[in-house]
Design a protein that fits this description.
Shape: globular
Radius of gyration: 23 Å
CATH topology of the largest domain: Rossmann fold
Helix content: 40-55%
Number of helices: 12
Number of domains: 3
Structural class: alpha/beta
Order of helices and strands: EEEHEEHEHEHHHEHEEHHEHEHEH
CATH class of the largest domain: Alpha Beta
Length: about 375
Amino acid sequence: MIEGRHIMRVLPIHLIHPRLDTEDEILVGEELESLIATFGGKIVDRIIQKLDKQNNATFIGKGKIDEVAAKIKEHDIDVVVLNEMAKPKQIHALKEELKKTKAHIEVWDRVDLILYIFEKHATTTEAKLQIELARMRYMGPRIYGMGKVLSRQGGGIGTSGVGETNTELMKRHWRNETKRITNQLAKIAQNRTQQLERRKRAGFKTVSIVGYTNAGKSSLYNALTGKKGYAKDELFATLDSSIGKLYIPTLSAEVLITDTIGFIRDLPPSLIDAFKSTLMESIHADILLHVIDASDPEMYTKISVVNAILQDLGRKPEDILYVFNKIDQAKDLDKRAILKEYNSHDGLFISVKEKIGLEEVIESIAKRIALLSDN
């Protein structure tokens, strides 16, 4: 993030389980640092602590806090980012310790960072409301905590006559705001449902592109629909669902193709819930194209993350067509073993960048639609 001419200087803190091997450590760290780069922050150093679990009071141990403080002083750090979701009291306590070194230091956890990235990429009213709702739901416990601190410090605003503490006022405001945003999103969701029903009545078949963030979903969407949407090599490049058309000559018909938000590991349910209206396109599509980065060393883990979310959304494995992208970057790819792993006979291996396998994708969509029409 650039504020004026200042590029935000970021210090990631990687809490690593002692039994994690070196390669896994690197992969866990890389995702957080990719998120920071997507946000626009400059990583000037990093802290690694090996612990079985988070320090209950301050997330990291006392010795590491001193090390972080030294790095803040040395590099003039603006934001410290924790690689996991942390409790409100942990973030508050860690920030209080670090403020002794720099008064205006910020401490974010992984979800805070993701929410800031969402804000950066939001363009439509719907996306902005979804992010606001996600932030409200995530910030709720912290707001309550702040109210308690203020009430202890000064008796509380509005206690005279009204009989409400700061915590109660904040809770009421939080509930009202959450309800207001939820109602606005419900109206948008209703409109979207009506659109889906109109398409169905008109006989349109729909294909939704899903996958882990940065697997190449938007690039495939652009290639299939001929559109020039936003397809950048960064995480969460797409927040809103985009809809385009693909003409299939063998069927003499058009299908609707949708692209929507990419998934990521360890997202709190509140974030998934906030994007439910956008994800409706995926929930109700006739066919799902699950786009996978075949060059990613964490490919299998990321497939599991996406499949778990799709299952939570009520989609069945037989609805999914696996599309392994970036094969031009994947060395020694064992296609047979991959297909066996997912009990799939029609998984596809493509490179959108090199225009390899796109015709096979269209043929597979046509076959699936023909089967649906027969049934």
